[in-house]
UniProtKB/TrEMBL annotation, chains A, B:
InterPro entries: ADH-like_C, ADH_N_2, ER, GroES-like_sf, MDR_fam, NAD(P)-bd_dom_sf. It comes from Paeniroseomonas aquatica. This is NADP-dependent oxidoreductase. SMART domains: PKS_ER (SM00829). Keywords: Oxidoreductase.
Length: 333, 333
């Protein structure tokens, strides 16, 4: 292994929107696997909005990335060396190996997958953590019933794509919200949502037109002005699946939210969840279901592939601005 | 029946806090029961905060009381005449007969109860709709587990009393919030809560002292400043049972609520419910459980009994200002 490891570290905590100087790119020796470990060379890195939270030391559901530590992230790659029965060089694996080329990990954090089932990068998106997030949030909170209206914010993004398509397969009317005509066209033409609203336009008028019967399930990925427009349109017994509020991640002080009296009046259920709490033990069930939808041609997806690990910080900065189009992944060189 | 009926009507919709002139007191003939009806003379009327919502024509979970119609409300009384098998003169019944002395109703809206089980007025409070509200909200949303910290606002009120005592019986640490030293003393000394916070004092300091391990279940009866103080103290996976927000019922425009990003970060479940949605079919189960707690001496309650139906409007106006102390009922003359 003459090759070196390439790692991206958190240099300092961002103030507001992250900038390139918040990251540090280093070359280090390829790690030597300890007994009981598997050495993996990552081929794809997933970039996801939750990573912004890990960069801050504000109280959150997960410890922040330490200053000087490798940025966290899901990866897909190949086993290079293994001291663990059941894992052999050449095996394809998923795991949270971080923003780096090589890592040596214990098997509890590895999923072995069949690379023939789908393109490898899909296992970071539609078949990965974002897809599992969509599936778990719908199973546990959204619980869409046939004929209901489901509104999905960040509809062209990694999670939103899957939320809307699963809801559509389950017989719902699905309305996406995305930024710009190009993304909206993708959401309706490729993903097959019933309608898509451009959040740069008049949200109220577009929601009135697209949701004449109100909203039964709202998948919250963005917060801000979109949340303010959707909230009053929730129907009695509506579920609001709190997955993220990316429009507010860089805010240094929180904006006020909706008055909660309507939660009583309408019997709303507003509930947050984190896929890592209970999602991974259900990954096989999720993967089987989604592979079935793929095989029957009912599941489309789009990726935004950035070439080269050194591009990850800029790609991530763009992700928080909505500059990606589809699930953002980095192909590791 | 030489006696007349006495009825309290909604004369007009209140602007902000209701005033006496919003009601009209009339004497009318005692109704003649139609075939298939039961004529009931009410002995107790329950006054409850939700009635403020019924006086407005704003969109709500239930149709408003029409102008000129009898105010709605739960009552307990005695059957005077019956054209329905299974109901005989002298039977004791519960039902939503409204703010009036006599009513003639179909049996689908009647519960026959054993008057020997508990004082009749208790069937409007701890054993009535408020008690059932407490039980259903804890069963379906709060789901308190032994050792958890449960905070109950309006703790000395009709619902709060029962919420806290059930949670205590289930092994929780229970902290009430009430207005003034007298109510707080009642909450700890009579109801047996572990602590009670006076919302007229420094909420933050008192919550810090009473809830050193944060809050796992918050029973929301009041909204306003109490909600703003409690919300940031909710633990991961906390449940916020949205039962009412009485402090804001007279507001003509809604105040902003909490930023909902913490619903994601902490996986909060914020959920409203209305007891009439699913509560009454479970009334027998609830009543049996509560009668068991009464029999074992583990359930205390306090009523604020107002004498005479003509006093109902003033008593209700006082209820919305927190002037009652215990479950407010009117003894019908």
């Amino acid at each position: 292994m003459a090759e070196t490891n390439l790692q991206i570290l958190l240099r300092r905590r961002p103030q507001g929107a992250p900038v390139a100087e918040d990251f540090e790119i280093v070359e280090t020796p390829v790690p030597q696997p300890k007994p009981g470990e598997v050495l993996v060379r990552a081929q794809y890195l997933s970039l996801d909005p939750y990573m912004r939270g890990r960069m801050s030391d504000a109280k959150s559901y997960s410890a922040p990335v330490a200053i000087g530590a490798v940025m966290e992230g899901q990866t897909a790659g190949e086993v290079v060396a293994s001291d663990v029965p059941g894992f052999a060089p050449g095996d394809t694996v998923l795991g949270g190996f971080g923003w780096q080329r090589y890592s040596s990990v214990a098997p509890g954090r590895l999923f072995k997958i069949d690379p023939g089932e789908a393109p490898l990068s899909a296992s970071l998106g539609v078949l990965g953590m974002p897809g599992l997030t969509a599936w778990v949030g719908l199973e546990d909170i959204g619980q869409p019933k046939p004929g209901e209206t489901v509104v999905v914010s960040a509809a062209s993004g990694a999670v939103g794509q899957v939320v809307g398509q699963i809801a559509r397969i389950r017989g719902c009317k699905v309305v996406g919200i995305a930024g710009g005509a190009k993304k909206c066209e993708f959401v309706t033409e490729v993903l097959g949502f019933d309608a898509c609203i451009d959040h740069r336009g008049d949200l109220d008028a577009q929601l009135d037109a697209a949701c004449p019967n109100g909203i039964d399930v709202y998948w919250e990925n963005v917060g801000g002005a979109v949340q303010r427009a959707v909230f009053p349109r929730l129907n009695d017994h509506a579920r609001m699946v709190m997955c993220g509020m990316i429009a507010e991640y860089n805010d240094t002080s929180p904006a006020p939210g909706p008055n909660l009296m309507s939660a009583v009046r309408k019997r709303l259920r507003i509930q947050g969840f984190i896929v890592s709490d209970s999602g991974w033990p259900r990954y096989p069930q999720f993967r089987t279901e989604l592979l079935g939808h793929m095989a029957s041609g009912r599941l489309a997806w789009r990726e935004d592939v950035v070439e080269g690990l050194r591009q990850a910080p800029q790609a991530f900065i763009g992700l928080l601005k909505g500059e990606n189009f589809g699930k953002l992944v980095v192909k590791i060189d």
